[in-house]
Design goal:
single chain; mainly alpha; two-stranded antiparallel sheet; 2 strands; about 40% helix
Length: about 100
């Protein structure tokens, strides 16, 4: 399946393959909103704000798990979904989040 996104000033929206985060073009380059691109942006901005490289060399999964408030909020919403009968949160393969980026 595909997703569509656009930024102010775009002349054409970006069509992205949801399976791998690549753009539906002949080059199959990464989308600006795929996990890899957003993680790279997060690391760059985090370094500027905190003047820290604590996430250097960490995988996306390790960095995400280090975010205690995010993890706590996710657990709360997962529990609430279950209580309301919406079912369980769909878990993706662990390997999907085991990547690093260079900033």
């Amino acid at each position: 399946s595909s997703g569509i996104n656009a930024e102010y000033g775009d002349t054409v929206p970006e069509a992205t393959r949801t399976v791998d985060g690549k753009i539906n073009d002949n080059n199959a380059s990464q989308s600006r909103i795929c996990k890899n691109s957003l993680f790279k942006l997060f690391l760059t901005e985090y370094k500027k704000l905190k003047e820290s490289d604590e996430f250097d060399g960490k995988t996306y999964c390790e960095a995400k798990n280090a975010a205690k408030e995010y993890t706590a909020a996710k657990m709360l919403i997962m529990d609430q979904f279950k209580k309301l009968g919406y079912g369980c949160w769909v878990k993706k393969p662990v390997e999907q989040n085991m990547f690093t980026v260079n900033t």
